[in-house]
Write a structure and sequence with these properties.
Blueprint (H helix, E strand, L loop, with lengths): L5 H10 L6 H41 L11 H4 L9 E3 L2 E5 L19 E2 L6 E2 L8 E9 L2 E8 L4 E3 L24 E6 L2 E6 L4 E6 L7 E4 L5 E6 L2 E6 L10 E3 L13 E4 L2 E5 L5 E6 L4 E10 L3 E8 L13 E7 L7 E4 L27 E7 L2 E6 L2 E6 L5 E7 L5 E2 L6
Parallel strand pairs: 2-21, 3-25, 4-7
Antiparallel strand pairs: 1-2, 5-6, 5-26, 6-7, 8-9, 9-10, 11-12, 12-13, 13-14, 15-16, 16-17, 18-19, 19-20, 20-21, 22-23, 23-24, 24-25
Length: 416
């Protein structure tokens, strides 16, 4: 057979073979692949379910059977430095503050107050060095009068052109003296209210009835000031007001001279909201074991805070001090309220351990008070010798400044 005879023979043989159906072959291959993928997905799902079951059993065993009441996202959404609460008092989570004497070793929150707030060596005249926002106000006593010194958010000092006298034998500086915009500071005086505008150096006076007014609190719009004394309170118009509005109006008072604050005030059993009519309405109930309240109530965008002296607290036994705590009540129903209980000195000694710089004073009732809010999550608290910041999100307490002055009022300029 010759080579040229082979191709015709192959063509003849191919004509007798059946043609293959490629579509059927492709469909069969596809079904095979899909079955294999289903088997893989089924096996993977079973493995995942078994793994989740093992993890849940481990959590249940490791938590003593309380896994069902542990928030599932606690481990994933906690802020840096988060501290777990020490327990609950009256249904509110509480933390225990670092003991007195340990403040110097806390992390510091930077503010224009500096590491130590003391009377300055250099002070400008307010008329020559105006301030756009007040960070703090202190008083210098010269004989029988006081001179107000204003600290700006740039850490510079100016002296206001006014002399103040004591009220009822007390200093005329109220913790709520600085306006919400940080521009004006107010002082109660016998028979009048005095305001100083730090941005213009303008001094204004508003007449008051006779009385020992110890508390000054601004209404949020900075158009009104509430002044209070034992059993008496007034609303003073310091802005433009409406047509025919009286400059002075009596409002519902309290026997606690520092209780009259806006927009909220905390009192035993209730959180009260201030109304434009000069009355208060109940915003929420509060069932803390309170013996008395100290200082003013300060409000932020979503909460109000005040310091209380409590009865004996079984949850926080004390040996040498009466329980004191800061309550931060949330005005948002979805956010919980919180408590910070002020701790005692280290057990067994009235002093801090060797190497610490400050004596560990027992915090006597009335030694401490809320001074305001740094921001919506940090409450500023004055204790003996220090201003501290309590972070509501993490539970941490940081030092703000060491106090070398007798009294201070803070303003929004405390935020750099």
């Amino acid at each position: 057979m010759r080579r040229e005879d082979v191709p015709p023979l192959l063509v003849q043989a191919a004509d007798r073979l059946p043609e293959p159906d490629l579509a059927d072959a492709a469909w069969a291959a596809g079904l095979k692949v899909r079955r294999r993928r289903r088997r893989i997905a089924l096996v993977s799902g079973i493995v995942l379910l078994v793994a989740l079951l093992i993890v849940s059993i481990s959590i249940e065993v490791g938590s003593g059977g309380n896994a069902d009441i542990t928030p599932p996202n606690r481990l994933f959404n906690t802020p840096p430095g988060y501290l777990a609460p020490a327990g609950q008092i009256a249904g509110i989570d509480f933390w225990v503050a670092p003991p007195p004497g340990s403040e110097r070793f806390l992390d510091r929150l930077e503010t224009p107050l500096g590491d130590r707030l003391e009377l300055p060596g250099k002070v400008h005249s307010l008329s020559k060095h105006k301030l756009d926002r007040i960070a703090a106000v202190v008083l210098v006593k010269n004989g029988g009068v006081y001179a107000p010194l204003l600290l700006g958010r740039d850490s510079s000092w100016s002296q206001a052109p006014v002399e103040l006298v004591p009220v009822g034998g007390r200093s005329p500086l109220s913790p709520g003296a600085v306006s919400p915009d940080g521009k004006v500071v107010a002082f109660a005086q016998p028979g009048k209210l005095v305001t100083v505008d730090a941005s213009t150096a303008e001094v204004s006076q508003y007449q008051l009835p006779a009385g020992d007014f110890q508390s000054v609190s601004w209404v949020e719009d900075a158009q009104y000031i509430l002044v209070g004394g034992p059993g008496v309170a007034y609303r003073v118009l310091v802005g433009e007001g409406g047509d025919g509005e009286p400059p002075l109006a009596g409002i519902e008072a309290s026997n606690d001279p520092e209780a009259v604050t806006a927009p909220f005030r905390i009192e035993t059993g209730h959180v009260m909201r201030y109304l434009v009519t000069g009355e208060w309405t109940e915003d929420s109930t509060l069932t803390l074991p309170v013996r008395s309240w100290v200082g003013q109530t300060f409000s932020s965008g979503g909460g109000v805070a005040r310091l209380f002296i409590g009865d004996k607290l079984p949850e926080v036994p004390t040996m040498r001090s009466q329980p004191q705590g800061v309550v931060a009540v949330s005005t948002l129903r979805t956010v919980p309220s919180r408590l910070l209980i002020l701790g005692e000195p280290f057990a067994g000694s009235a002093q801090t351990p060797v190497g610490a710089g400050d004596p560990a004073f027992v915090r006597q009732p009335g030694c401490c008070a809320v001074l305001g809010w740094y921001d919506q999550q940090n409450v500023l608290v004055q204790v003996r010798g220090w201003v501290l910041a309590w972070d509501l999100d993490s539970g941490r307490v940081r030092r703000v400044t060491e106090l070398a002055v007798d009294q201070v009022a803070l303003g929004p300029g405390v935020r750099p």
